[in-house]
Each structure stands twice: as C-alpha cells, then as structure tokens.
Amino acid sequence: MTASAPLLRNAPVHRIDVGHGEPVLLLHGNPDSSAMWQPVIDRLAPTLRCVAPDLPGFGATPVPPGFDYSLEHMAAFVDHAVTQAGIDQPLTLVMHDFGGPYGMAWAVRHPHKVRRIVVNNTLFFSDYRWHFWGRVWRTPWLGELSMRLMNRWILALETRRGSPHISDAHLDAAYALMTPSMRRMVLALYRKSDPANFRGWEDQLLALTQRVPTLVLWGERDPYLPRQFADRFGARQIVAVPDAGHWLAVEQPQTVADAIRRFIDATPNG
C-alpha cells in the first residue's frame, strides 16, 4: 500500500453483492458503475457470489481524500473493497476498461487471493496510445471544455461508436451518472494514468497469467482497444466476439455469463 492507503480504511465502497458460492469480483470502467455488470450478475448469481464495487468517483463510491491514482493505490483500493466485502477465499477476477489496471495491479500484488482471471477489453501495456477522447481529457482546459459540453447526444454517439448495440436504457443510466464530480474524476484519472506507468508491471502480470487460469473475452468492434491487445495477456483461452464492441458485457451479457461459467467449471478449485 502507498502512504495514502490508510485513507481508505473508513471509506465506504458501494457494491452489488448477490448470490452464493465461489466469489466473483467484477470491476467496471469509464463511464460506468457496478450496474454495468448487472445483466451478467443476474445470470451468474444463482450459483456464484457476485461482488461488483463502484470504483472511486463512479456510481455511489466517493473519492477518498488524497486518492493518488497510482497503480499501487489502485491495488490498495481493490484490496480494501475485497476486505470490506468479507471475501476470505481466492476469487475469480473479472475486469473491463479501467477496471483492468485496478484489478491487474491488485492481482500482481496479491496473487494468493486470485483463483482465475477474466480480461474483457482492457489494457495493461506501456506502449498503448490513448484514443481520441483520452487525449482530449488528458489536455488541460480542453478536457474541461469537453466535459462541460458532454451531453446525452454526444455520449450516445461515442458510446455507440464503441458498441453499436447499446440500448437507450443503458445510455440513460450512464448519462445520469455523469455528475460534475464524476466528470472531474474522469479528467483526473486520465491525466494520472500514463501508459508508461505500466512498465515493470507487464512482466509481472504475464508471470501471473502463466500460473493462474486466464480467459480473455474481447468484443472485436472496439475502436479504443484493437483486437491485437487480446493476444498479449498470456491467456490460455481467448473468446473473440466479432459482432460486439467495447461494452461486450452490456451488448451480450448472456455470451459473457456463459463464457465465465464455462471457464469456472473447467478450472475447479483444487
């Protein structure tokens, strides 16, 4: 943990926590909340305990004072969320978008707490180049202007560029989350998240995925994270979905839930 990690001790973490059985931790990305995983959770919860926290500044989890956005502190936040949920056995870690850096940093630091890894359209690579909106949000004043101008129409246009089959209901929910504080959080997160920071972590992740069963689920129509990134996690299995994009779990929750369940069934606890 970093020096600021003690600030997490009393910080509330809002989460979805349903079902019984082996624990599955699902981490969302931007601009989402734990609710992004709800359709997948509905399909898994009959036989698995599904825990999906809101990341700091998203959904109902506040940003703890002094949150520093480093990979070490992202790992500390995930460990705090796991502890707060009372998970006391190795879990299946499922990550999307910015949930990936949070979750993979935690897995590298706490490999004994991870039973399986599921990667879904995310990144952990120092040679990644930010997409257009990432570059905008990382630019002072331009990022602030873009957030002030971000309305539902723009959000829908960009989200459907990433995932053409996103529903109006999902867009309504996503736009409702975009409070002024959440918009500030997105700017801070992107400005502190330099892909160069992954140097030194990538090899540790690959060493981990050689030991821990790892599945990659990838929507191939993702304009932010090209398909070739799916091959770089050292996974034993890759499920590529050609007719889905960045938000695969929203577009095709049954596909995602079925793949996760088959993966868990094929890699039982020893």
UniProtKB/TrEMBL annotation:
Q: Which domain of life is it from?
A: Bacteria
Q: Where is the AB hydrolase-1 domain?
A: 23-200
| A molecular-function term among this protein's GO annotations | catalytic activity
The name this protein goes by in its record: Pimeloyl-ACP methyl ester carboxylesterase
Q: Which organism is it from?
A: Hydrocarboniphaga daqingensis
